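Postdoc handover notes: sequence design on the structure in folder B. Input tokens:
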């Protein structure tokens, strides 16, 4: 055979582990490799390693890879049912999807040729996003707490899900081991979940491959259909009519982008709360470090508690011998100033996180949820997709409660800071007197209010009992810390003398038009309720769309042995690999699917053609088998050649007639 007619190896590269899956980037010179150890390695065409993504746990395997059509995000599906969306720049996980069963396939498809000019101009009336005009810009979080990765810019805070510049809808198709297909717009918004067993009344096992046509009208799946004995199974092709996605693709795009912004805000709020907990723990650590030795001595001598010693000093003005020794030799004046400055800084950090971050998040969440509420009331456009006004109103109420709880925490922090400053100012005066040092005139006198602040600080922040075995000083900072725990408030604020509370109690009808307060819940609990309510609102369209999709037919292609029992974490020996392309011919969209009958080398492949439009309620399929072998010299004018081609077209027409 001539050299020009052969495939020629250009280069050979080596990897350290066996590769199970590889996928080229659609836009850049990048290839993603999945290894037998569950790692994902990204290489350039020159074989320069870009990054390596470790598996999320031991014995967890990669079951699928998919690039977002713009090549900026890589989806990785694991045997545990987790799908991670990774930033191609640094492998950071920007979003994670958790499904109940192991992943078997991933495909990411972008819409094409769906925006005709007449409808496009009409849709601009309601799809323009003007939120930047009204909402405060999110501030980057403090890098000292390790919440923001090195090199992350301010723009990344606003675009945590990497959705900027997404002008066309794209859909991530996810299949699992129990015959369920999940569709996610932009990989984050749940569009539909379809249980193939229920939809087809056929027991479906693994979903090997799933492909969505680029006009979003037809979903083609290659699945394992199990027989009654569960020892044998068929490889079948299954079609789902998804024309609802095509007819409402603009609405789905708007919903997905709004949901992406909401998810970014929730992630930002969660990171903020985590930083607040770290700042709170810093205060506890600072106080515990200074008071630990003093608390241990008190415990050994069985002579009272740290709290009692401070209260006696406040009431009588005379410290115990242990406390005097601690103040003069352990804490000292310089140590007290350093400790006070450190704790005040931590208090200020918590206060700034509430003011500059949490409250901005709350305002933005209320804004976006209010937009979704308005969309849900437009039934012809959005209500038909399952967007429930009541569910969104519940989420809106939860967002309002979150804002109110943030304001409440801010008020508690203000009060705690007053008490803290009064306590350290009083302690500084005590140390100066014990040291016979001059006292600044502005600190020499304390008002009754100052004494009340000190007494309240001791009451709030020192436990009555301390654990001698652990050496804890008994300092707890409970007033602020209770808001950061996942439990009810131990000391909810007293609203008995609050005029606004009195008005609400005397006007029950007014409560229905205001956000609920959740007086006894912590900030962490309120935030969890907010996430749950948003999830409930978002899952409504997924359920509605999934139930409305039409099953267009299932056809057996060939048989294969099923996987043995007790090996549910392993795929069957045959996993079909397909490639798909949507082609428009004379205004008719057709989905072409090519696949092999064997994992190993074979002499033929199959090409399936399906119209994305239903014909009399059914999907029309045409299939041809192409054989790869040496035919020998053929004289096209001979009768034998004519018979050979006539036989080929007769086989093609037979397959076409059977599948119809």
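Designed sequence:
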């Amino acid at each position: 055979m001539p050299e020009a007619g052969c495939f020629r190896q250009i280069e050979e590269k080596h990897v350290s582990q066996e590769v199970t899956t590889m996928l080229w980037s659609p836009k850049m010179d990048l290839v993603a490799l999945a290894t037998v150890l569950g790692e994902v390695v990204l290489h350039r065409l020159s074989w320069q390693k870009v990054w390596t993504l470790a598996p999320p746990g031991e014995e967890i395997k990669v079951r699928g890879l998919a690039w977002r059509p713009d090549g900026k995000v890589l989806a990785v599906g694991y045997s545990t049912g987790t799908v991670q969306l990774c930033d191609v720049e640094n492998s950071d996980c920007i979003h994670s999807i958790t499904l109940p069963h192991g992943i078997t396939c991933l495909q990411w498809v972008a819409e094409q040729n769906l925006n005709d000019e007449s409808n496009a101009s009409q849709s601009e009336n309601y799809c323009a996003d003007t939120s930047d005009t009204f909402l405060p810009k999110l501030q980057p979080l403090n890098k000292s707490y390790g919440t923001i990765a090195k090199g992350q810019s301010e723009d990344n805070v606003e675009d945590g899900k990497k959705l900027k510049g997404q002008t066309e809808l794209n859909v991530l198709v996810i299949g699992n081991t129990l015959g369920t297909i999940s569709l996610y717009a932009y990989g984050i918004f749940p569009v539909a979940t379809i249980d193939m067993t229920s939809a087809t009344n056929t027991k479906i096992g693994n979903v090997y491959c799933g492909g969505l046509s680029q006009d979003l009208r037809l979903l083609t799946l290659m699945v394992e259909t199990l027989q009654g004995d569960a020892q044998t199974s068929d490889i079948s092709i299954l079609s789902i009519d998804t024309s609802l996605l095509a007819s409402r693709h603009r609405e789905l795009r708007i919903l997905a982008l709004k949901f992406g912004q909401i998810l970014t805000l929730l992630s930002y709020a969660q990171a903020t709360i985590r930083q607040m907990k770290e700042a709170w723990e810093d205060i506890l650590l600072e106080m515990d470090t200074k008071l630990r030795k003093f608390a241990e001595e008190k415990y050994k001598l069985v002579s009272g508690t740290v709290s009692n010693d401070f209260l006696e000093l406040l009431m009588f003005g005379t410290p115990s011998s242990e406390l005097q020794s601690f103040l003069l030799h352990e804490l000292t004046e310089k140590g007290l100033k350093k400790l006070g400055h450190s704790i005040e800084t931590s208090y200020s950090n918590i206060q700034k996180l509430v003011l500059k971050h949490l409250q901005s998040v709350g305002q933005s969440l209320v804004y976006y949820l209010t937009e979704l509420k308005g969309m849900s009331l437009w039934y012809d456009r959005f209500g038909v997709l399952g967007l429930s006004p009541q569910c969104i109103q519940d989420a809106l109420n939860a967002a309002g409660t979150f804002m109110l709880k943030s304001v409440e925490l801010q008020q508690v922090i203000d009060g705690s800071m007053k008490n803290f400053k009064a306590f350290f100012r009083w302690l500084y005066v005590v140390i100066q007197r014990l040291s016979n040092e001059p006292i600044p005139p502005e600190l020499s006198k304390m008002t009754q209010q100052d004494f009340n602040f000190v007494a309240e600080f001791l009451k709030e922040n020192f436990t009555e009992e301390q654990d001698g075995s652990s050496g804890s000083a008994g300092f707890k900072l409970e007033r602020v810390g209770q808001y950061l725990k996942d439990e009810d408030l131990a000391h909810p604020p007293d609203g008995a003398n609050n005029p606004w509370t009195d008005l609400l109690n005397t006007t029950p009808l007014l409560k229905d038009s205001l956000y609920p307060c959740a007086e006894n819940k912590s900030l962490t609990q309120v935030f969890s309720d907010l996430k749950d309510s948003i999830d409930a609102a978002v899952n409504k369209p997924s359920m509605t769309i999934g139930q409305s999709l039409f099953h267009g037919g299932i056809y057996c292609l060939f048989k294969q042995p099923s996987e043995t029992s007790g090996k549910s974490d392993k795929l069957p020996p045959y996993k079909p690999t397909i490639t798909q392309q949507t082609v428009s011919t004379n205004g008719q969209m057709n989905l072409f699917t090519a696949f092999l009958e064997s994992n190993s080398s074979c002499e033929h492949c199959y090409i399936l053609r399906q119209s994305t439009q239903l014909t009399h309620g059914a999907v029309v399929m045409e299939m041809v088998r192409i054989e790869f072998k040496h035919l020998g010299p053929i004289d096209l004018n001979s009768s034998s050649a004519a018979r050979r081609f006539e036989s080929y077209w007769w086989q093609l027409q037979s397959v076409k007639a059977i599948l119809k």
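Context for whoever picks this up: The chain is about 40% helix and 20% strand. Don't rerun without checking with the PI first.
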